[in-house]
Amino acid sequence: MEIKRYEGNGRLSLAVEHGGILHLTGRTCMPAGPDIKAQVSGVLGLIEETLEKYGSDKQHILFVQVFLKDIIRDFDALNEVWEAWVEPGYEPARATVQAKMAKEEALVEMVVTAVKK
Asked: Residue 81's CB: how many other CB atoms inside 10 A?
């Protein structure tokens, strides 16, 4: 099966497609929003745009890995924004962990795997 790589920059690709599955690189909201809710909303918007660009949408997401800078402080706020965004009946599998961010101002990063429509 062919592997398609989209928007590579010499280090990584924005998305990789194989066998009808899209793998999106980790997305952050840069420049960073003022708080976790703004950053989560920004990241989810970027995910929707990228999925649309490559033939999918949020109803076709299989799995999301969420990285939070401070899981104790931000987990409830993440879930508040997340639950408003996810459509009932289309909830993907998800894992959330705390992680050190590559940029100090980043509070959240998400990695997505989705099926093409």
From this structure: 19
With 0.90 as the threshold, say if the pTM is over it. yes
Residue 7 and residue 80 in contact, taking contact as beta carbons nearer than 8 Å: no
Contact 63, 92 (CB under 8 A): yes
Residue whose structure tokens are 């961010």: 101
- Tokens representing 23 are 């793998």
| pLDDT, tens digit, 9 for 90 and up, residues 3-55 | 999 999 999 999 999 999 999 999 999 887 889 999 999 999 999 999 999 99
With a CB cutoff of 8 Å and minimum separation 6, the contacts of 34 are none
